[in-house]
């Protein structure tokens, strides 16, 4: 028997946390503020979007917000009443793997009175410990 040919590959659910890095990513000279993680974990698309909306609302849509992460790992789930078998479930949501010291958001062209509280309120939406750097 030949193996079944599939058009798209089913991804496996990630087990365990990503490798912890102690280094902090070097940022360019143009940035004003950066939101950097202090621990490893996972973020889903809704959490990233919620933090983005909060930051943009606090700075009244001034300056430039750059998002350096993207949810590209599919998490599938079968219906709760489904019987066993009959293949893998549908994609439920998308997540991204975050390592310690990774930069999540960059905020350009805004002063400290608006930038730091905006990133702090956005950090409250995330389930990871983060730090705000002013450059």
Automatic annotation (TrEMBL):
Keyword hit for Ribonucleoprotein: yes
GO CC entries: mitochondrial large ribosomal subunit
Keyword Mitochondrion in annotation: yes
Superkingdom per UniProt: Eukaryota
Keyword terms, alphabetized: Mitochondrion, Ribonucleoprotein, Ribosomal protein
Matching Gene3D superfamilies: Ribosomal protein L10e/L16 (3.90.1170.10)
GO terms for MF: rRNA binding; structural constituent of ribosome
Pfam families the UniProt entry points to: Ribosomal_L16 (PF00252)
GO BP annotations listed: mitochondrial translation
Family note: Belongs to the universal ribosomal protein uL16 family.
Protein name: Ribosomal protein L16
Encoding gene per record: rpl16
């Amino acid at each position: 028997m030949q193996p079944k040919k599939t058009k798209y590959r089913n991804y496996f659910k990630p087990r365990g946390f990503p490798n912890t890095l102690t280094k902090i990513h070097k940022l360019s000279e143009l940035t004003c503020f950066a939101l950097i993680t202090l621990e490893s974990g996972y973020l889903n698309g809704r959490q990233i979007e919620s933090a983005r909306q909060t930051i943009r609302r606090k700075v009244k849509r001034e300056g430039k917000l750059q998002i350096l992460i993207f949810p590209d790992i599919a998490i599938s789930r079968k219906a709760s009443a489904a019987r066993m078998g009959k293949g893998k479930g549908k994609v439920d949501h998308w997540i991204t793997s975050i390592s310690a010291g990774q930069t999540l958001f960059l905020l350009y062209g805004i002063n400290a009175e608006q930038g730091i509280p905006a990133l702090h309120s956005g950090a409250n939406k995330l389930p990871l410990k983060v730090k705000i750097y002013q450059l």
